[in-house]
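Thread title: Can someone regenerate the structure for this chain?

I was given the following input by a collaborator and told the matching structure tokens would be attached. They weren't. Posting the sequence so someone can regenerate them.
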Amino acid sequence: MVNGKWNCCTSLRRDSIASSSMKPFLVIFPLILVVVFGIVSMMNPKEREEIIDLRSEAVLEDVNGIHNANFNHSLASTPFPVQLMQTPPQQSVINEKEVLKPWINSTDPLNETYVPHTRMKQQKKFSILDRTEAGLSQARAAIREANNMNQTQDPDYVPIGPMYWNAKAFHRSYLQMEKLFKVFVYEEGEPPVFHNGPCKSIYSMEGNFIHAIEMNDKFRTKDPQKAHVFFLPFSVVMLVRFVYLRESRDFGPIRKTVADYINVISEKYPYWNRSLGADHFMLACHDWGPETSFSVPYLHKNSIRVLCNANTSERFNPAKDVSFPEINLQTGSINGFLGGPSASQRPILAFFAGGLHGYIRSILLDHWENKDQDIMVQQYLPKGVSYYEMLRKSKYCLCPSGYEVASPRVVEAIYTGCVPVLISDHYVPPFSDVLNWKAFSVEVSVEDIPKLKDILMRISPTQYIRMQRRVGQIRRHFEVHSPPKRYDVFHMILHSVWLRRLNFRVHDDE
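Best answer:
Regenerated them for you:
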């Protein structure tokens, strides 16, 4: 869409007309179009890439900006609106009035007996892609109108409260996703590297998502022409386990495997080349997820990267990439890990237990390890002391980054009703395009670690009780279920991808 008008190409046919004064014009006009279309078809990838890159430079607006459907993408940045961005546009589009009625702008006098041939009034023939984009345009409009209408009733859950940047817009967007969103999963590739992933480890979300999307009948489509996005079903954990040579420090085999895969699907299907990967997404919870995406330039530059390691200092781009939570499913299930006592039954002010991984934990342990009864910071718990019981006894759970920014402690805190304290640099928390993390968590900079107790003590009991209650309300968005349940972590991941897809239009060069 350009300047509010659909950017669709029509095929023109020269008609015979009664007026002899129009013949020269109509003879030359198709030749002009052929030349213009030829120029566009010869656009080199760099020109197209630069147009796609406009997507990552979207103007970010304030929470109370002019759009109703605003979603935040970082604690440190303002929400971005659902708005239309573009992949390479067809520059040969001519004003519809000029195409269908060329006589309107003609300087030649019209013969009074002139009657356009019936074929000149023929309606445009829209492709499947045009209809798909039209559906997305209607969804964008519906989301923007959410604040002007009563919130839709929902039998399962109605988002409400300050935990959401815009609860009505999120709800409307979620319902639109359920109604329209289709994902095509490439079937190429063999396990264990493709169509497979871990389900019982700190990286369990890779395997859980791959399994859930491949078994899903609602969102998965077997017809790629009807898809809004295309999923690249490789697991970075499995690439590291089966392709990477231990102790070699050579990332080459992983890069080659990913590059070869994209070469295969780009030669077999037209969709990667059509958008230069902009409507494709990969998902990785392993620390090497970002590095794996650099295997193919368009994969990290254009594609939607769904990453646990959402580190803006390592080129994570919140405008097009998705942050999702690291969840340590030790048993493959969340059974037994959910729930905890009320705010009044938590005697410990703050708690952390964990090894020395990364400089942030080193600073935390230096300042607080075994130095204060209210701030219980330890590397190792005494024998017989349950880690999860300590979480349930604590008001605040400290979640410092390790070697990478993401930590499973964030979700562990949420599961047990403990208010998470995020201590990190350059981290974009999960689903922060929708969730207002400041409403149910505490953010502490690395420099303020020595002031940790003062910061927490300044939070009033009333404010803490509100935050703790909100943790319980948003917990559903981090729960893992098999099969998935509405509004759970699987659906929230899909919704984040859906939001990114709403922000650009794919053009068909044909």
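Residues 343-478 form a domain with the Rossmann fold fold (CATH 3.40.50.2000).
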